[in-house]
Amino acid sequence: MSRIRFLSLVTTFAMSSSSSWSCSKCTFLNSPSRKLNCMICLTPVPLPSSSPTPLSVSSNDEPKWACKGCTFLNTYKNSACDICGTRSPTSSLLGFDDLTDSGLESSNNPDCSVGSVFFPLRRCSKRKAMDDAVVEVDGGSVVSSESMGFVKKKNKEIETKGVASDSGASFSCLKILSYNVWFREDLELNLRMRAIGHIIQLHSPHLICFQEVTPEIYDIFRKSSWWKAYSCSVSVDAAQSRGYFCMLLSKVGVKSFSCKSFRNSIMGRELSIAEVEVPGRKPLVLATSHLESPCPGPPKWDQMFSRERVEQANEAIEILRANANVVFGGDMNWDDKLDGRFPLPDKWVDVWEVLKPGDSGFTYDTKANPMLSGNRTLQKRLDRILCRLDDYKLGGIEMVGKEAIPGLSYVKEKKVRGEIKELELPVLPSDHFGLLLTLSPK
């Protein structure tokens, strides 16, 4: 027998007699034949009294909350009613999809959780808001979101070293993020970009290299709380005039932004450059690019644009090599088997190779990124950070954006043995993983 049917029968039976007695703890109307304790909560029958006992009085002085579904008084240590399972009005479902019931989801009922245990549970049609609280500290910020898998920190626990401040104090470390944010706008764009914003708030990089930014993505970022801490290499007007582009962001002082189009690009690819002034340290040049993409197609399926990509890599290095301290990060679309070794001159290093020897470092990986598991297998280290550093030293490098966004999925059609099948796949912030580099002064 279902629980709702059981409670209905019990209620009908209990109310059939005019001599029913009300339980002092849960207010249930018990049958006169129930002489020892309450049928629902087993509270002993109250002793006869000359004055009625208020229904809200319990057998002890511990603070309690009244269930809106059945009026049972629960202790505050319980997040759900002991009797009917209705959630406490003070409880939170942070990190989970809200559950509603078909009978109570209306504007007339302010709490859709009331009595929901008595109805079949289903996924909520309203996506949970992901506007998480952000703690600002000296220009940096940390998102306090457990739903994104991030750890909450109290103000005094937030790492503030290396964060830009008005005092101009020197940095103990410098964080640089490179990320291809994926220009596909029909796949949960707002939530993906918000997830990238959470990554920025968590790590608080001083410098950011973005690739595949569209005007829509630019607008989403520009309206985000973290944006105001950065200077941007692309103006609002310029962003609206482009299909997609690279851009640089800086929390530290910027001497200049510049952009150089590649001579041989048929895809409008370019090199974006920022000269930044790190407080108390030597100047640094930051650069990003999105080198020519392989686009195989009929009839020969050989349009890999390797020659163009190699020429662009050489052109970029030639422009940057005169500087003593350079960080060049971006989506290089590089394939060592097809393009050969990246053309690095003396004193230049590929950071991942130096700090993670033996690690494949695939930033585009259909096996590690479940959002891409419906695609043909492809594992490449497309994204790289390349450096020449006379006055800084490498601290560490890691991949970011490897976790799926909680509670979010999309449907992809895939042809399997001549039959079209629908796959429900998780959603990650991008089809690429990002790279986070940490530098420290020598």
From TrEMBL:
Write out the annotated subcellular location: Nucleus, PML body
For this UniProt record, give its keywords in alphabetical order, as a comma-separated list.
DNA damage, DNA repair, Hydrolase, Magnesium, Metal-binding, Nuclease, Nucleus, Signal, Zinc, Zinc-finger
Q: Its GO CC terms?
A: cytoplasm
Give the GO terms filed under biological process for this record: double-strand break repair
> Does the keyword Transferase belong to this entry?
no
Q: Which residues form the signal peptide?
A: 1-22
Main subcellular location of this protein, as a coarse class = nucleus
Q: Which cofactor does it need?
A: Mn(2+); Mg(2+)
* Superkingdom of the source species: Eukaryota
Which InterPro entries does this chain map to? Answer: Endo/exonu/phosph_ase_sf, Endo/exonuclease/phosphatase, TDP2-like, Znf_RanBP2, Znf_RanBP2_sf
Q: Name one Pfam family in it.
A: Exo_endo_phos
Residues folding into a coiled coil are none
Q: Where is the RanBP2-type domain?
A: 61-90
What GO MF annotations does this protein's record show? 5'-tyrosyl-DNA phosphodiesterase activity; nuclease activity; single-stranded DNA binding; zinc ion binding
Could you tell me which PANTHER family the record lists for this protein?
TRAF AND TNF RECEPTOR-ASSOCIATED PROTEIN (PTHR15822), TYROSYL-DNA PHOSPHODIESTERASE 2 (PTHR15822:SF4)
Q: What is this protein called?
A: Tyrosyl-DNA phosphodiesterase 2
**Species:** Noccaea caerulescens (Alpine penny-cress)
Taxonomic lineage: Eukaryota, Viridiplantae, Streptophyta, Embryophyta, Tracheophyta
